[in-house]
């Protein structure tokens, strides 16, 4: 059984700012990911979405955040998927967790991904993919309230 540490930014009423949540998220990454990850603009925006949508660092959390991104942000799906493959994120996950671990994570993610799809469709407006910088000093509970984000 997988025991996950719940981080402060994952609390729906978190008073952390987006910037503080992002720092906490980055610190929670496995050490090899911290060392091997170049902070590209696309990766920064992806990590911001992990924080805004309250997702951790596991394979199934990555799947769920991708669902939130595609259906709950204003990003163009085609450009996001192209950036995702350019970043070699899937390859890094396979190296970290093994092919069997990635497959288990994908299977575990299905119910949460479906739930997140419906939650994303009920948001009051879509999260601005490229405009996230202006929210770095805004508390997470305010962001989630403004956009109608209800965490699972």
Verbal overview:
The chain is mainly α. Helix 1 packs across helix 3 and helix 4 packs across helix 6. 27% of the residues are buried. The radius of gyration is 14 Å and the shape is globular. It has one domain. Helices cover 62% and strands 0% of the residues. The chain is built from 7 helices and no strands. The longest helix has 33 residues. The chain starts with 17 loop residues before the first helix and ends in a 5-residue tail after the last helix.
Quick tags:
single chain, 152 residues, mainly alpha
Brief summary of the model shown:
The protein has 152 residues and is mostly helical. The chain has helices spanning 18-28, 31-36, 41-52, 59-72, 77-86, 89-121, 140-147. α1 packs across α3 (41-52) and α4 (59-72) crosses α6.
Q: What is the topology?
A:
Blueprint: H1 18-28, H2 31-36, H3 41-52, H4 59-72, H5 77-86, H6 89-121, H7 140-147
Helix pairs in contact: 1-3, 4-6
Q: Tell me the number of structural domains.
A: 1
Q: What structural class is derived from the secondary structure elements?
A: mainly alpha
Q: Biggest sheet, open or closed, and with what strands and sense?
A: none
Distance between the termini: 20 Å
Mean pLDDT, rounded to whole units?
Answer: 87
| Approximate helicity band | 55-70%
Number of helices: 7
Which overall shape is indicated by the principal axes computed on the Cα atoms?
Answer: globular
What fraction strand?
under 5%
Show unreliable segments: none
N-to-C SSE string, H for helix and E for strand: HHHHHHH
Quaternary structure: single chain
Radius of gyration: 14 Å
